[in-house]
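We both want to read discrete structure tokens more fluently, so let's practise on a single case. Would you write everything just below, so we can both look at the same thing?
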Amino acid sequence: TTNWTAGRAGTTLSFNGTDEYLAVSGFTGIAGTAPRTCSAWVKTAATGADQIILSWGTAATGQKWMFRVQPAGQLAVGAWGGYCVGSTVIGDNQWHHVAAVLTNDGSPSVNEILLYVDGKLQATSASNTQAINTLLTDTLYIGVANNNGTIQNFFGGLIENVQIYNRALTADQIKDLAK
């Protein structure tokens, strides 16, 4: 369960970082190598641990999609076995628009994910070239990851206006979302 509170533009979901999350029944995410864009407005502090904004898929190599905040506060996406991380710290207790874009080039991998903070493309680094092939066996989670029955990496802070697209948005489209 989560709490509603005053947010950036109306009401928003507030997560305590220890046991609150939202399971979105009826939507399992975007499968396989399909293109996708995830975005949200977030406000959090760096905690020294991964904090999940959105996650779906199976906890197996390349089969999980985890849109998150890194322990040091940067935006990242993990695919179980590899991740891509941005350069800007968003864990500064200020509102930030965050987005991740995956284009299906036939063999998408974590090093090809584009990350945006406040409408600006980030310089990124990747842990490796882990292939992405998301397997849909569970539901979409906001504020946590369900890793084969273990609920972990709780988000502490505010998440607002979550959007998931089954296509790769352009830089201009991301910029418009960040207004």
Q: What stands out?
A: The two ends are 29 Å apart (CA to CA).
